[in-house]
DNA sequence: GATTGGATCGCGGGGATGCTTT
DNA sequence: TCAAAGCATCCCCGCGATCCAA
């Protein structure tokens, strides 16, 4: 362990990015420094929010689909996970609400633990949604992934135009 | 001013991102936390070069292997391509020199066109090195990929300690 | 016999397709 | 019986260790 000194403003910013009670500074920083990767969203939102103090809905989503990490990703699952992660960053409580009410006839689609996804189906192939307490079912086709995204976005009450943009983009990339 | 505790590895990573002698932790962190950009390797080199006008050898290489895009990448080929790309950014003329003199008994390993790699072997699976005019042969084991990296780095006359660091890291990740 | 290099083929992940259920 | 929705088997393809050739 090492100690570093940082100014108050920066300190508060970092502290505000805590995702788990008692999370260490190292853990928070590692996540934030990953921002060049997938997690742009949370940063972007945080920055925009602190600068404008106006809520700009779906900022992280829209920036994600224009971000090279997303654009260059050719596996549908990975884009799926990125979008879910961004949705969670967008509004974690609405996301949670949307998540719990979503399921198929047998399968649960989202949960905060791997096991309940494994237990409600065969070969569901659950994957953790990055920077999120959630897991998603993954063994399904692109149409269903799209459906899961749509349902969550609808429940989160994002604007219809944004939902359309995101889905059209997702489907277009999936079918090639 | 506030004090935070972080683990050693993270500390060294942050320290390695210093751009001005005596730069404060806050300053470094603010810069890193804004880096929503992506293309760190080439970016880093360009920035460092223009700001300091001192040649800092292998900066892009070392930052690459601490970068989440590299760390999180589990496919050896992709890390291989990233490293080659960083090496080219480092010094394209030395890279070119090193590239042309490198081959196996039948196969050419690097070329500026796909065809000559296909033609000098069966199933060579050439891949383009990102942000580079070069292609590499890919259908080989990790030991050979490592050998290719080593040979190029040696020919580019990077410092032995850097070469060791990069290779140890590459091999460690490959063997898991 | 040992070493170096080539490239076949085994393994694992992704997700479309086809079967099952409602 | 037909249609629609949902599940999960199974095919395909990329990676790269292993084995074969030089």
List the helices and strands and how they pair.
The structure is a homodimer of 176-residue chains.
Chain A: E1 2-6, H1 8-16, H2 25-33, H3 40-52, H4 59-65, H5 68-71, H6 76-90, H7 92-100, E2 110-111, H8 114-119, E3 127-128, E4 135-136, H9 142-156, H10 160-174
Antiparallel strand pairs in A: 2-4, 3-4
Helix pairs in contact in A: 3-4, 4-6, 6-7, 6-9, 7-9, 9-10
Chain A binds a DNA duplex (22 and 22 nucleotides) through residues 75-77, 104-107, 121-125, 138-145, 174.
Distinct helical segment count of chain A? 10
- Stated plainly, the CATH topology of the domain at 57-174 in chain A is called Replication modulator SeqA, C-terminal DNA-binding domain
What kind of sheet is the major sheet of chain A? Answer: 3 strands, antiparallel
CATH superfamily of the domain at 57-174 in chain A: Replication modulator SeqA, C-terminal DNA-binding domain
Distance between the termini of chain A: 48 Å
GO molecular function (chains A, B): DNA binding
Family (chains A, B): Belongs to the SeqA family.
Keywords (chains A, B): Cytoplasm, DNA replication inhibitor, DNA-binding
Subcellular location (chains A, B): Cytoplasm
